[in-house]
């Protein structure tokens, strides 16, 4: 499905196409195959690749949702090398924004259960942004380093003359019982996810104030609205991000800056597209204290999908991007301090 087709579809056609794509994905997974970047891979092709290699091949072309909703805007996006960050970057470019893509392009923790983002991944995000005729500024660095972020904010301001949108997306996670965690396992997740999000706001919000307003979007998680077994550091960091967002919204409203949180459900990115997450997912759904340690994608998908309202076990990164574009646009001028759930219906289980 190409971007031209998506831009010319009406609402009804988009719904039909969406249902067709979702059904195709479920049918393909049921037969042992996979979908990568909208391309179907049969079970034989899937078996020849590592799961991380499959997850890295997201090449989202982008969608436009109106008459240049973000024309003339400059968006800074952290964790932009792939996954949700890439999808948001490309959809914002499709809607007129120039993009600054920031990513560490290296290990965040000494041990990662998922593939490491690379500079080549970030360059691919830049290529996809430029396909829409927009500028892309590539920045490699760590959101835990606020001095680096402040220097980057100065460079972006100098290059473009203004910053209008900030998306704090960079994240990592660890799977381990709380009392068994090493100090670094707890600290690296909190420092990257929560402190890194706060650093991003603290570094870039002054530029938005200077420019007379703007939009800040932070990425939390459904696991920021409930506890998560063996994922205490991740859940705590994402819960903290919601409190951070609401506090920042109260403080920055006088400066015409809106601050909102996007709440993804389970999303098929390298962070979750791995055996450790699939095993945890099966344990969550089945209440199994000893889930299989090396499940397949199909086993995880088939276990979870029947329990979800839309019968989709996990979302694609590009499912999150439309909400981010809306929150970044003038259409959301009166929306601040809000959480926007994009979960495939998983949020229907929340008590509030």
UniProtKB/TrEMBL annotation:
The chain crosses the membrane at residues 28-47. SUPFAM superfamilies: NAD(P)-binding Rossmann-fold domains. GO terms for molecular function: oxidoreductase activity, acting on the CH-OH group of donors, NAD or NADP as acceptor; quinone binding. It comes from the Bacteria. Pfam families: adh_short. Keywords: Membrane, Oxidoreductase, Transmembrane, Transmembrane helix. GO terms for biological process: fatty acid biosynthetic process. Belongs to the short-chain dehydrogenases/reductases (SDR) family. PANTHER family: (3R)-3-HYDROXYACYL-COA DEHYDROGENASE, SHORT-CHAIN DEHYDROGENASES/REDUCTASES FAMILY MEMBER. This is NAD(P)-dependent dehydrogenase (Short-subunit alcohol dehydrogenase family). It comes from Tunturiibacter gelidiferens.
């Amino acid at each position: 499905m190409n971007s031209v087709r998506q831009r010319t579809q009406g609402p009804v056609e988009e719904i039909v196409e969406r249902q067709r794509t979702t059904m195709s994905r479920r049918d393909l997974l049921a037969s042992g195959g996979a979908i990568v970047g909208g391309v179907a891979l049969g079970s034989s092709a899937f078996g020849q690749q590592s799961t991380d290699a499959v997850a890295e091949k997201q090449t989202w072309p982008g969608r436009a949702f109106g008459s240049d909703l973000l024309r003339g805007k400059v968006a800074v996006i952290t964790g932009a090398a792939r996954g949700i960050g890439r999808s948001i970057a490309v959809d914002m470019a499709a809607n007129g924004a120039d993009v600054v893509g920031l990513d560490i392009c290296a290990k965040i923790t000494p041990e990662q259960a998922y593939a490491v983002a690379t500079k080549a991944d970030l360059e691919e995000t830049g290529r996809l942004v430029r396909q829409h005729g927009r500028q892309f500024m590539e920045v490699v660095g760590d959101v835990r380093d606020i001095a680096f972020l402040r220097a980057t904010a100065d460079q972006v301001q100098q290059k473009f003359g203004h910053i209008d949108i900030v998306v704090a997306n960079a994240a990592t996670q660890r799977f381990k019982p709380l009392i068994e965690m090493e100090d670094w396992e707890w600290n690296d997740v909190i420092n990257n996810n929560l402190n890194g999000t706060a650093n991003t706001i603290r570094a870039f919000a002054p530029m938005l104030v200077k420019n007379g307003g703007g939009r800040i979007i932070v990425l939390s998680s459904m696991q920021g609205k409930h506890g998560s077994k063996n994922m205490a550091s991740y859940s705590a960091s994402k819960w903290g991000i919601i409190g951070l967002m609401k506090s920042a919204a109260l403080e920055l409203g006088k400066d015409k800056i809106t601050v909102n949180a996007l709440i993804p459900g389970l999303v098929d990115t390298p962070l979750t597209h791995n055996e450790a997450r699939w095993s945890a997912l099966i344990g969550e759904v089945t209440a199994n204290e000893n889930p299989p340690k090396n499940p397949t994608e199909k086993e995880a998908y088939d276990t979870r999908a029947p329990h979800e309202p839309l019968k989709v076990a996990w979302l694609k990164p590009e499912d999150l991007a439309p909400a981010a574009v809306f929150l970044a646009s003038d259409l959301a001028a009166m929306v601040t301090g809000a959480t926007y759930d994009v979960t495939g219906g998983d949020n229907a289980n929340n008590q509030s």
